[in-house]
């Protein structure tokens, strides 16, 4: 086991895009993240699609013999469900999908993405803030500074008094898989 990987993290829910980004660095980062998970025997839990960054990530884990759990909602066209995953769970809607993804995970990571990714990330953070919510570490893989503006936005929210300094620390940031999991280990 890699020294920066916490032994408590055996399954990671990953939020990422259903589109292929125009800049190859993001696709390469998804590939590398998937390889990292497989190399460290960490199960991937993701949205179950066979398109975009989601496909890249899942295929990278599978290609290295890793386990992939796809949690796919019936709200989407079944044509884009990834049929090669280790386990495919069908849910009635997005809310159920998000709940299952959190329940099965030991940590949550958002890769660069768009509205769906952001929704899932903020949902995970809001639930973590609640006393009755989950206790999972929540992080972002800050590929090429993709999340820099989000980090600045959170700091702005602290500065104007909407977010406490304590709650601003709920989000863990790493530029590489190694850095992100090392930061998770430091917070545990």
Describe, in plain words, how this protein is organized in 3D:
This protein is α/β, with parallel strands linked by helices and 188 residues long. 43% of the residues lie in helices and 17% in strands. The two termini are 17 Å apart. The mean pLDDT is 93.
Spans with pLDDT under 50 lasting ≥5 residues?
Answer: none
What class, by secondary structure content? alpha/beta
Mean pLDDT score, rounded? 93
Percent range for β-strand residues: 15-25%
The topology string of helices and strands comes to EHEHEEHEHEHHEH
End-to-end gap = 17 Å
Shape: globular
Largest sheet: 7 strands, parallel
Number of helices: 7
Any idea what the radius of gyration is? 16 Å
**Quaternary organisation of the protein chains:** single chain
Q: How are the strands of the largest sheet arranged?
A: 4-3-2-1-5-6-7
Strand runs, count: 7
Q: Kindly state the percentage of residues in helix.
A: 40-55%
Explain briefly what this protein structure is.
By secondary structure, the protein is of the alpha/beta class.
């Amino acid at each position: 086991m890699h020294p920066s990987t916490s032994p408590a993290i055996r399954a990671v829910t990953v939020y990422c895009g259903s589109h292929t980004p125009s800049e190859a660095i993001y696709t390469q980062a998804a590939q590398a993240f998937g390889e990292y998970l497989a190399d460290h025997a960490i199960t991937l839990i993701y949205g179950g699609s066979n398109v975009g960054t989601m496909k890249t990530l899942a295929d990278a884990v599978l290609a290295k013999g890793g386990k992939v759990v796809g949690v796919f909602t019936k709200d989407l066209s079944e044509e884009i469900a990834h049929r090669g995953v280790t386990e495919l769970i069908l849910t009635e809607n997005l809310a159920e999908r998000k709940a299952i993804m959190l329940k099965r995970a030991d940590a949550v990571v958002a890769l660069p993405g768009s509205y769906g990714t952001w929704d899932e990330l903020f949902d995970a953070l809001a639930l973590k803030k609640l006393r009755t919510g989950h206790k999972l570490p929540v992080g972002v893989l800050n590929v090429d500074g993709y999340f820099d503006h989000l980090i600045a936005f959170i700091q702005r929210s602290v500065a104007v008094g909407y977010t406490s300094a304590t709650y601003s620390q709920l989000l863990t940031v790493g530029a590489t898989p190694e850095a992100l999991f090392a930061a998770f280990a430091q917070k545990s």
